[in-house]
Structures are given as C-alpha cells and as structure tokens.
Amino acid sequence: MSLDVDAIAGEMLGAVKGVVKKQWPATRVYFESEAKAYAARLAEIARLVADGSIDEKRARQHLAFQNESWQTTLLAVDGLNRLLVEEALNAATKVIRDTVNTAAGFALL
Question: d(Cα 7, Cα 23) in Å, to the nearest integer?
Fold first, then answer.
C-alpha cells in the first residue's frame, strides 16, 4: 500500500493548526513545508518495510530520526517552543496513525 503524501500532509496540517492556533499565520509556511516532508519520509519508511529493505526495528529508528528532524526544524522557527512543537507533532501523527500503520503492516506510529 502506498501512501498519499498530499492527503497525509493535509490531515497533519489540520491537526497542527488546532494546536498552534494564534501562531498559525506566522508559522503556517514552516508547518506546511515540514508536514509535506515528514509525510514523504513516512511514505518512504512504509515503502522500505513493504519491499523488505528494512525491518520493524529499523523502521522505528528511522521514525525516531524523522521526529527529531521535525522538532529541530520547527524549533528553529522564531516564537515556537518545545512543548508547542511536541503537541503539534503528536496531533499530526494521531490523525494519520491508522493510515501509516496499515501501510507499514505494524504499529509504527
């Protein structure tokens, strides 16, 4: 199963927008960019698992690295704090969890 990166990024942005609220206008461009990149990386992890290139353990390592990348990128945005970024990431992954887990074949998120 391949993942629709644009659809996943859109779902993530809807969840993120609810978390960042008043900061959305100032941070929208950064979240849009990072959500699209994060969704593409998740799709790649799922593809690698599906074609047998990596196992569940390695997929989880890739996911941890991608989460750190998401947080590092967004923490560089002026005005965002660690808690807000973590809440945004949690909200974004919650709305796509079933889709990504189904594509991976196990509970990756």
Answer: 23
Count of domains forming the chain: 1
CATH of the domain at 13: 1.20.58
CB atoms within 10 A of CB 52: 7
Phi-psi region of 5 (alpha: psi -120 to 50; beta: other; left: phi over 0): alpha
84: Cβ–Cβ under 8 A, 6 or more apart, which residues?
19, 20, 23
- Matching residue, tokens 């941070």: 27
At residue 90 the predicted structure's pLDDT band, cuts being 50, 70 and 90, is very high
Kindly report the pTM of this predicted structure. 0.78
Where do runs of H (alpha helix) occur along 1-109?
5-20, 24-50, 56-75, 82-104
